[in-house]
Amino acid sequence: MTADLSTTAGSLVAQAPATTAPGTGDAAGSLLAADVPSVVQSIDWLAIAPPTLTALAALAVLVADLFLPAHRKRLLGYGTLTALAAALAFLIPLRSGDRSTFCVTTGAQACSYTADHFTVVIQALVLGGAFLTVLLSLDDTRKLPAGEYWFLLLASASGAALLPASRDLATLVVALEVASLPAFALVGIKRGDRRSSEAALKFFLSSVVATAVMLLGVSFVYATTGTLHLTEIAARLDDVAPVLDTLAKTGVALTLVGFAFKTAAAPFHFWVPDTYVGAPLPIAAYLSVVGKAVGFSGLILVTVIAFPSYADVWGPALAVLAALTMTVGNVAALRQNAARARSAVRLLAWSSVAQAGYLLVPIAAAAYSSDEQIGSTVAYALMYAVVNLGAFAVAALVARTHPGNRLSDYRGLYATRPLAALALGFFLLCLAGLPPGIIGLFAKVTVFSAAVDAGLGWLAVVMAVNVVIALYYYLQWTAILFRAPDGAPETTGPDTGSPASAAPRRFRVPTPLTTAIVLTSAAGILLSGVPQTVLRFAAVSLF
Question: Is the four-CA dihedral 220, 226, 229, 233 of positive or negative sign?
Fold first, then answer.
């Protein structure tokens, strides 16, 4: 070891000038240092600001909770809201794209963190979804431990914001777990509630199994390629030795399992209905949007960037998953709608499973054409995030007088809350893809076009059939909103023991909840008026 160091030092000294004039020692040292590859790199703090600020805010909330008296815990919620707004503001200087940090300093140019257009769009979706979740939660956490709730929400949002910027498998896995582990606790945070505890346990166990399978796949990919960076994996998978080809294909397939679970793709969807019903309503909304964004962004990164050479493996698999997911979700939602005493949240849960099927279509299509198809998934995800959070916001409003939140509780909502009924009707029409929900219609058309352009005609037919099925239960729910209230008592639903037709009680809607409904309604109307704002993502490559 000493001899090696001496040889290295001697070679470096030999590269320096033989003579040095007085006063030029610093210059010689600089020249000597320039010949040695630097292992110290600067960090682009602006690029990593959104997830970093969110994580720091989570720690600040946890510490502040120790010192704030009970009557001032409400300030933690507003602090959370401010932190998320600041994180969103940091996305503005990043919108020009392509900033990278934590890069390899020698050999290939590979980075672990990249803030490109795809990253910025998904981070805006994630942080915006978390922001609206806070608005839904501000007046709905009175019986919950406030400090823990806001800390867990911010911690999960920081992992969700990190994931779309991750460009190596290790960072992807860490980000996925940082986003997921606090979510388990949030689902079960209603202490003493049996359904909440059961939902958290189902969510946790199924997620752990999916993560274990994914880690096995990641280990196979690493054994095949010898690297974890996505761009390097793509280059080395182009020329895999025949003896390792089966190992590589197995690793690709298993790696997709963890992300398929997060997207609630069938058959990895079974945790969704019970989890959404058992969790606090704002957390159900958070999982339906931010949880899906995490899964789909990870799925896009590993398929399009890391595994393009094995498109013949993941392309058909995702196409089948898309068809199966949208069919299972819509059929289950149809059955849910037929029982009017059933939970509206459970219907939204099955609807979110069906929507995941539509979101999978452009990713599968990218295996057969070009990665520009991914833009259709991003466009659809942005539409879905706005209108689904809006639907959950109205559901939170109804839950204040009808804790069971059954479909029958929405009967005659227009008579008591006309603006809320109109907003919910608009959101449901957007999800169905009918006017005046123009943005929903256009988003579905772009997804349908992606399947047709890729030559997946059979998948386009399956999607068309499922859109028709979904029309029935979305329109049925919309019609209930405008029917005259029924004075006769109805049957008791399985999700609650209270009668279905309890007399409506007037109350003042909390300002944060009103703000959430107004923001989502305004965004939906704006996007329906100028759909090209979102749909332009479907026409360009985001990488």
Answer: negative
Global model pTM greater than 0.70: yes
* pLDDT of amino acid 21: 40
**197 contacts 156 by C-beta, under 8 angstroms:** no
Tokens 């109307």: give the residue: 525
To 5 degrees, how large is the angle CA 218–CA 219–CA 220? 90
Query: Distance (Å, rounded) from C-alpha 40 to C-alpha 62?
Result: 33
The region of weakest confidence among 95-109, 270-284, 356-370 is 95-109
Cα 316 to Cα 221: distance, rounded to the nearest angstrom: 20
Kindly state the tokens that stand for 493.
């639903």
How many Å apart are CA 420 and CA 397, to the nearest integer? 8
What pLDDT was estimated at residue 375? 83
**Who's near 460: CB < 8 A, 6+ residues apart?**
448, 451, 452
Of 186, 145, 401, residue with least CA distance to 276: 186
pLDDT digit string, tens, across residues 454-469: 889 999 999 999 999 9
End-to-end CA distance of the chain: 45
CA distance 367 to 178: 29
Q: Which of 371, 329, 327 is nearest to 347 (CA)?
A: 329
pLDDT the model gives residue 22: 41
Three-state secondary-structure class, residue 29 = helix
What is the token pair recorded at 511? 């300002």
Assigned token pair, 175: 């980000």
- Give the whole-angstrom CA distance, residue 91 versus residue 95: 6
Distance of CA 228 to the CA centre of its chain: 23
Sign of torsion over alpha carbons 56, 61, 155, 284: negative
Name the DSSP letter for residue 35: T
Alpha carbon distances (Å) from 214 to 219, 251, 258, 406: 9, 8, 5, 37
- How far is CA 451 from its chain centroid? 23
The string of DSSP codes covering 67-133 is HS-GGGTHHHHHHHHHHHHHHHHTTGGGTT--EEEEE-SSSS--EEEEE-HHHHHHHHHHHHHHHHH
Amino acid (1-letter code) at residue 203? F
Site of tokens 């300030």: 75
- How many CB atoms sit inside 10 A of residue 382's CB? 23
Alpha-carbon distance of 128 to 122, in angstroms, equals 10
**For residues 218-240, average pLDDT:** 92
